[in-house]
Amino acid sequence: MTSTVSSPRITALQTRVVEVIRETADAHTLVLEPAAEQSESFRYRPGQFLTLRIPSDRDQDAARCYSLCSSPEQDERLKITIKRTRDGYASNWICDNVEAGHVLEVLKPAGTFVPSTLDTDFLLFAAGSGVTPVMSILKSALIAGSGTVTLIYANRDEQSVIFKDELVALTKAYPGRLHVIHWLETVQGIPDLASMTALAQPYAQREAFICGPGPFMDCIEKALEIVGTAPERIHIERFVSLDADPFAPVEPLNHEADGETATIEVELDGNTSNLAWPPGNKLLDVLLNAGIDAPFSCREGACSACTCILLEGKVEMERNEVLEEQDLEEGLILACQAKAVSPHVRISYEG
């Protein structure tokens, strides 16, 4: 029969906005200060994002993911940058309403758009507000890494360049290690495959990170394939608007589905847990119902925040908007979409 246990609630974190920086006419950076007792929960890696609760007059609040543009490698407050988009409910609400002193509800930093090491040479591609996670990686690599960084940054015009002054300052602070190439549509036109291939060619063997509008990322991915960049060196950050409310209570487990109950062994934060996995239920729901603080954000298979490594057993995923074929071959799965197929499954979040 269906469980009658109350649904566990998602514990939202709180952070106060201490400053709003107008980067451009339509892009605002929010400087954040977490509550002291929650500061450890805000530990993050370069390239990760925060999921914000956005008030709404609809049946449920909206939620959006915004990348951290600050670096965890230096003593600075957390920062996220939001660019106003046409008909964008969340971005317009933030730009019109959020001021210093405002308290935001967020989920823990998450995401897999993260370098495995900072001690390498990087080729970074960004367009528009896609520069935000790239900026975090760029600063972290310069501060804590030993390699060189090339950023190819596309914008509509010079007035649209987010972090323009900061990039100039970083170029001066790290001579010989940072090279910034600006591409302006008003001057060079929309980025095309031939031009992007030519720009990527000298850096084909570097670790490449790409973020921006879909067509831009598709173009860059193809250009890197042409110049021979190894697939495992190409990293792409894809965001989609969230349909559901990730802050909503977790659904209780369903115990009525046909099939055998599996067992799941989970490695997380240095601990190993063994749980029953009733048929028909998704892995993330099993973990959250058991009180395990597993990472997640969208709960829709669209953001990669809940990615873990399948070490033993088999699962099937209902939906996957973010993991590439190579990710799947390496054993990566989305906990929010995975259902057990084998009697025993072992997964890890430690990778």
Characterization of this structure:
The structure is a single chain. Helix 5 crosses helix 6. It is globular, with a radius of gyration of 21 Å. Strands 9-8-7-10-11 form a five-stranded parallel beta sheet, sandwiched between helices. A five-stranded mixed beta sheet has the order 13-12-18-14-16. A four-stranded antiparallel beta sheet has the order 5-2-1-6. The chain has helices spanning 89-97, 131-144, 164-173, 185-188, 193-200, 214-227, 283-289, 325-329; strands spanning 13-24, 27-34, 49-54, 62-67, 78-83, 103-106, 122-127, 149-155, 178-184, 207-211, 234-237, 262-268, 271-277, 307-312, 315-317, 332-334, 338-340, 344-348. With 351 residues, it is of the alpha/beta class. The protein starts with 12 loop residues before the first strand and ends with a strand. The protein folds into three domains: 13-106, Elongation Factor Tu (Ef-tu), domain 3 (Beta Barrel), CATH 2.40.30.10; 122-237, Rossmann fold (3-Layer(aba) Sandwich); 262-348, Beta-grasp domain (Ubiquitin-like (UB roll), Roll). The chain contains eight helices and 18 strands. The longest helix has 14 residues, at 131-144. GO terms for molecular function: 2 iron, 2 sulfur cluster binding; flavin adenine dinucleotide binding; metal ion binding; nitric oxide dioxygenase NAD(P)H activity. Its cofactor is FAD. Pfam families: FAD_binding_6, Fer2, NAD_binding_1.
